[in-house]
């Protein structure tokens, strides 16, 4: 018979999907309630984002499947240029693990008689923009500014380099790389590129104004200025603009600082390499020296003013920075969802060495964790590494996220639960590494 169990945490006022109650109620009144997609009804759960030309929604079907719908507004000329543009690019570049998956396209007919064009897309999770916001929250709590771990910077850099390398080989330029357009996939355990509305074939640039302020390469800045003045800007920009944007993103991730003001300064335009050196010198006490130097040199090679001298995505992947093995920080495993949950601060040695108590704890844990979704496996190692930690593999990341949200702050046998995610690939290999605190 089980001898210990969970107790409930204090109630918290929270609307579904982490939306504040006031925002959730306002959102409910303005967003669609459902979409009919390929003869099946999908319910809208929340609005994930809204831009000038399109809105993105989280949707679920009766089969409990989840996806994202990008619904395009008709443009000012009454056409569907934005929809056709992104659809054509996505259909041409499908099949790479670091590019969002397009499931299909459909037309939505609202009860008002308005028809809108839609893309049905893979549902992804936290963006690099959100990771940067969470990274900077420590300053408000009195801690010094600190960027993300080298493990996380390397993970993001490699994933996006590989996505860009594929994209550029296919002849495309993304042309709007920024933190908001890089999202984490919990089930594939990698970062992916989204939003190809400004993308174009290299040598055939059909978009006048490209990239976002703060992530815009010097040659794109010049071209945009010429376009505003009504002057044709030559043959257009190349894939090198994407490397510039990614260099800025990685510098922000390493430093934990938004660099828009810095990049707009005269000092940056005169000598950005000196500013990069200064940022790395300021943060180097927190990281091992050699990996820091490799990352610094990689970023500097991406931020050369002459686009012809900038590294390519393919050559950047050969940087020695990517050959260094890093362990994740515990904060990384809180930030990046996966189907595996790791529960800490629960099990005493007495539970591990008494076989009857150990079996009782296993039974208790499985029973509790199954309340939040389908449990595929559950492991409590009796020896290091991972001794006394509880690893719970769920059927999908949605279930593990719900479990993480509801278990954190509860108590088990008088102890407060701490729940982080854990990489599925490492768990499947039986690799229970010790994370850096």
TrEMBL record:
Q: Name one GO biological process term.
A: regulation of protein export from nucleus
Where, in this chain's numbering, is ATP bound?
70
- Name of this protein: Serine/threonine-protein kinase Kist
Q: Say which species the protein is native to.
A: Nothobranchius furzeri
Q: What is its main location?
A: nucleus
Catalysed reactions, as listed in the record: L-seryl-[protein] + ATP = O-phospho-L-seryl-[protein] + ADP + H(+); L-threonyl-[protein] + ATP = O-phospho-L-threonyl-[protein] + ADP + H(+)
The Enzyme Commission number assigned here is 2.7.11.1
- RRM domain residues: 339-424
* Region feature Disordered, mapped onto this chain: 1-27
**Can the keyword Ligase be found in this entry's annotation?**
no
| Annotated compartments | Nucleus
Keywords of the record: ATP-binding, Kinase, Nucleotide-binding, Nucleus, RNA-binding, Serine/threonine-protein kinase, Transferase
Q: Name the job this protein performs.
A: Upon serum stimulation, phosphorylates CDKN1B/p27Kip1, thus controlling CDKN1B subcellular location and cell cycle progression in G1 phase. May be involved in trafficking and/or processing of RNA.
Pfam families noted in UniProt: Pkinase, RRM_1
Sorted alphabetically, which SUPFAM superfamilies does this protein's record hold? Protein kinase-like (PK-like), RNA-binding domain, RBD
- Enzyme class, spelled out: transferase
Q: Per the database record, which ranges form the Protein kinase domain?
A: 42-322
SMART domains assigned to the protein according to its UniProt record, in alphabetical order: RRM (SM00360), RRM_1 (SM00361), S_TKc (SM00220)
Under the heading InterPro entries, the entry gives: Kinase-like_dom_sf (IPR011009), Nucleotide-bd_a/b_plait_sf (IPR012677), Prot_kinase_dom (IPR000719), Protein_kinase_ATP_BS (IPR017441), RBD_domain_sf (IPR035979), RRM_dom (IPR000504), RRM_euk-type (IPR003954), UHMK1 (IPR034372)
Q: Which molecular function GO terms apply here?
A: ATP binding; protein serine/threonine kinase activity; ribonucleoprotein complex binding; RNA binding
Q: Which GO terms describe its cellular component?
A: neuronal ribonucleoprotein granule; nucleus
